[in-house]
Amino acid sequence: MSFDAHTYPYSSQRNVVYGRKGMVATSQPLAAEAGLDILKLGGNAIDAAIATAACLTVVEPTSNGIGSDCFALVWVDGKLHGLNGSGQSPKNLSIEAVKEAGYEKELPKFGMVPVTVPGTPGAWAELSQKFGKLSLTDVLAPAIKYAEEGFPLSPTLAKYWGNAYKAYSRSVEGDEFKPWFETFAPNGKVPKAGEMWKSSGHAYTLRLIAETNGKAFYEGELADQIDAFFQQHGGFLRKEDLKAYKPEWVEPISVEYRGYQVWEIPPNGQGLIALEALNILKGYRFTEKESVDTYHKQIEAIKLAFVDGMKYITDPSSMSVSVDELLSEEYANTRRDLIGEEAITPEPGTPQKGGTVYLATADGEGNMVSFIQSNYMGFGSGIVVPGTGIAMQNRGHNFSLNPSHDNALKPGKKTYHTIIPGFLTKGDEAVGPFGVMGGFMQPQGHVQVVVNTVDFALNPQATLDAPRWMWSVGKRVHVERSLSPHIAEALTRKGHQIKVEVDGGPFGRGQIIWRDPETGVLVGGTESRTDGHIAVW
């Protein structure tokens, strides 16, 4: 691919990064370097991805943990494979049980109730067994070392850590939350940037996972500890729920966009939203990136795709329409016809009948991995299993308590999932992995990455540094302060309710690695909005 060398003036002015033998891009430097070390030990891109992901549970616990879910797109030997590493709801968790617990409108954000089965440890083991070159013990060694010996917090990490402590201090109470405070604010003190933090319990758990290829988590010692803690505090998760879990290999889904194939994980992930939006957008031609029309049409397309996603995406067994129906050319034409010159309030369509941390890795052999892992809402549920470092996710919060909704809570069901890895190919060749983490920003970030790359030929770093926007509800759109004021004003005249974010904002954090099919040279970009880092060989 050829790229515009332009870098936006408000960005960090970092140059795009090149390499040949290997590359790891993620939001935390120590984790990226750990992945590169695994490549240098003789591991491949899959080993590096697992090592980086495991390290991120230690060095960026504000976004993910051992109790996370994950998804992966893996390019090996000229084929793209998809792994769904999300877990199901406990068999005793039902709409009736939630309402009996006192929650009438929605599942709570924090506590025992919204915890679903974590898929991450099982997914690490599955990836290692199917595609890895090194043992899981070797691959998890860097994460274990950081957990045992400690590491100094990076600036953005420290900011989110402190924010989480304040939020939990205000919002949660009860003995079940004490282990979180003991683990992440020992002696009542939150670690600051540059200060050391470690967790012997986290190291102990990672070692057991490595030695047993994940079995200790789902049917052994760790499963017993999880079960006992949830029983003690009235939670729903049990050892039998853990034992029933298996990661699922799935066929990735895609749409063609101007000669490229854009790939996502199928539902229960929300990657379908990005694909539907791109299917709508390919009916237009964009000649200028920084124009009102370009922004307007992207926003309108994502709105239409998002309301469809929120209505239909769930465990595939419960979807009332199919992926093919939502991604058909006919349906894209129908949705595109709704886009005019003014902002609309989107409503779900009705197709004709017939769902964080992100990392990307690549090695010198052509293997590439797009991997995303998350607890949801920062640290997740606020539940940490004592002595283990296992911070549990709260994915169950996304279930609906409306029995007629596609994503209605049922025992043993997977919920609508926000985390999504992306991948780009052209013809039979891999272009590479990309992703933008951040809740419901993710499919919107994917659309912006693809448009910036394909329509405007921006290099990976410029693609990530470009001004971002995020639609939230109705006609409300959040934009970065780096967006040109005249474009923001023109969007307002079109009926968009523009909110300029002056202090950060909900715009996610992304990573990109592209590969030149002729030379094998790798080119990467990392997030300027956080402590992003590219480790390269």
Task: Give a written overview of the molecule.
The strands form five sheets. The chain has a seven-stranded antiparallel beta sheet. It has a seven-stranded antiparallel beta sheet with strand order 7-4-3-11-10-2-21. Strands 16-17-18 form a three-stranded mixed beta sheet, covered by helices on one side. α5 (136-149) packs antiparallel against α8 (200-212), α12 (271-281) crosses α15 and α12 packs parallel to α16. The chain has helices spanning 29-40, 45-59, 95-100, 120-131, 136-149, 155-171, 178-184, 200-212, 215-219, 221-232, 239-243, 271-281, 292-312, 323-326, 329-336, 442-455, 460-465, 485-493; strands spanning 17-19, 22-26, 69-76, 79-85, 151-152, 196-197, 248-250, 253-257, 260-264, 357-363, 368-374, 384-385, 390-391, 422-426, 429-437, 469-473, 476-480, 497-501, 509-515, 522-526, 533-536. It has a domain at 17-249 and 357-398. It is α+β, with helices and mostly antiparallel strands. 56% of the residues are buried. It contains 18 helices and 21 strands. Mean pLDDT is 94; it is low at 4-13. Helices cover 36% and strands 19% of the residues. The chain is globular, with a radius of gyration of 22 Å. This is Gamma-glutamyltransferase family protein. InterPro entries: GGT-like_enzyme, GGT_lsub, GGT_ssub_C, Ntn_hydrolases_N.
